[in-house]
Amino acid sequence: MLVNDSSLGWETANSIAKAACQYAADNNLRICTWVLDRHGNPLAMQRINNAPMPSTEIARGKAYTAVSFGFGTHLWQERLATKPHLLAGLNVQEGVVMFGGGLPIKHEGVIVGAIGVSGASEAQDQECAEAGIAAITQLSN
């Protein structure tokens, strides 16, 4: 049996990363962004000069978490509020980041990749990620 598998292409991933960074630059933010394919493999990374150094790996972790679980990283605290044992267990998993700035990227309801942004506040990281995804939505219209 063969599996038909849809994923982002590198050109689209670059467009998403560039749009997220452009939104950040327009708002005087210093961020790093990663875009991964649906399997968690890196397709694009961009870092604005002078973004905090840890933001590089945090952004990758946010994208990895979003593509792995299929929902935005900003939703973790709410989802696990009554399950501290799960929160404690997931917090020690390498590469899992459970705060805002990571979003899955979907096409026709299917996850095709994810974006992770880090370097600003959680809300600002989230806005940058949303701006990146919005850029490809505008391209397809």
UniProtKB/TrEMBL annotation:
Lineage, uppermost ranks: Bacteria, Pseudomonadati, Pseudomonadota, Gammaproteobacteria, Oceanospirillales
**One family name in Pfam for this protein:** HbpS-like
Positions of transmembrane segments: none
UniProt cross-references to InterPro entries, sorted A to Z: GlcG_carb_metab_protein, PduO/GlcC-like, PduO/GlcC-like_sf
> Record's SUPFAM superfamilies?
GlcG-like (SSF143744)
Species for this entry: Neptuniibacter caesariensis
Q: What is this protein called?
A: Cobalamin adenosyltransferase
Superkingdom, taxonomy of origin = Bacteria
